[in-house]
Write a structure and sequence with these properties.
By secondary structure, the protein is mostly helical. It has ten helices and no strands. The chain has one domain. It is globular, with a radius of gyration of 19 Å. The model has no long low-confidence stretch (mean pLDDT 92).
Length: 263
């Protein structure tokens, strides 16, 4: 029966499978065309992510139609609350992303994760344009459609909001396939699920993801904030300030937002 727990769990798992099957096939084809070099890595990732969007968007739209059938259609209205959603989402994700990257850099974790070193070298091995279009736009849109737009919402229906936040974040961390990114992506995924839960809009998670990735790309390519990686007074002090800013933005959302629907 379609109401069994096994079927419901399958409905959560198979979109992730489709995402990675499609992206893997496209990635393989692009390797044959472009080669397997660090210079083309982000270009290949960008095209792979773009190729998955129509498939994941179809699942998201199906779920959206069912949600509107049950709860009614909500009309998006641009107002002060939406402006605050944008500001708080970007502020929370960028500040906490900076702080988390700094904390990881101050520990031995990077040295113990050869997978992260290889992924990081490939990630930043190509042209800045590919990083901006791929990491800071296409990839966040594709991943948020899947992990927050589909997976988180389906988990929420099955287990409730807080277990869904934890489970979707854990899955998001695991698929990054190395210790450092598991930790970083897991915590970031928890924040992104929180954003959509508190605001009711997927766009807040997308913007938060874009902001976090944008900060990582800019600081890597410009050397901006390199001082804050060091475990000294300046680095630790700056990291604490970023943590406080991020926590303050999250705290404001906790106090003032209630889930009322989704876009």
């Amino acid at each position: 029966m379609k109401t069994t727990m096994g079927y419901k769990i399958w409905q959560i798992i198979y979109p992730v499978g489709i995402y990675y099957v499609v992206s893997s096939l496209v990635y393989f084809a692009l390797e044959l065309i472009l080669g397997n070099t660090a210079e083309t890595y982000m270009l290949r990732q960008m095209v792979c992510s773009a190729a998955t969007v129509p498939f994941i968007l179809s699942y998201y739209q199906q779920d959206k139609k069912l949600e509107e059938t049950v709860y009614g259609k909500t009309q998006f209205v641009w107002n002060r609350k939406q402006a605050e959603n944008i500001l708080l989402s970007v502020l929370a994700a960028s500040a906490l992303g900076i702080a988390l990257n700094n904390i990881i850099a101050m520990t031995p974790l990077i040295e113990f994760s050869s997978g992260f070193k290889q992924a990081n070298a490939s990630f930043f091995g190509g042209k800045l344009l590919y990083e901006l279009l791929g990491s800071c736009l296409i990839v966040p849109i594709a991943e948020e459609l899947l992990f927050r737009g589909v997976v988180y919402k389906r988990l929420r229906l099955l287990f409730g909001a807080y277990p869904a936040m934890l489970l979707s974040a854990l899955l998001f961390g695991i698929v990054h396939a190395n210790l450092v990114q598991l930790l970083y992506a897991g915590i970031l995924g928890l924040l992104l699920a929180f954003l959509i839960e508190k605001t009711g809009y997927l766009y807040t998670a997308i913007l938060g993801h874009i902001a976090a990735n944008m900060m990582a790309v800019l600081r890597q390519n410009t050397g901006w904030l390199d001082f804050s990686y060091e475990a000294d007074v300046a680095g630790i002090g700056f990291t604490v300030v970023m943590l406080l800013i991020g926590v303050a933005a999250v705290g404001y959302l906790v106090r003032t937002r209630r889930h009322t629907g989704s876009d």
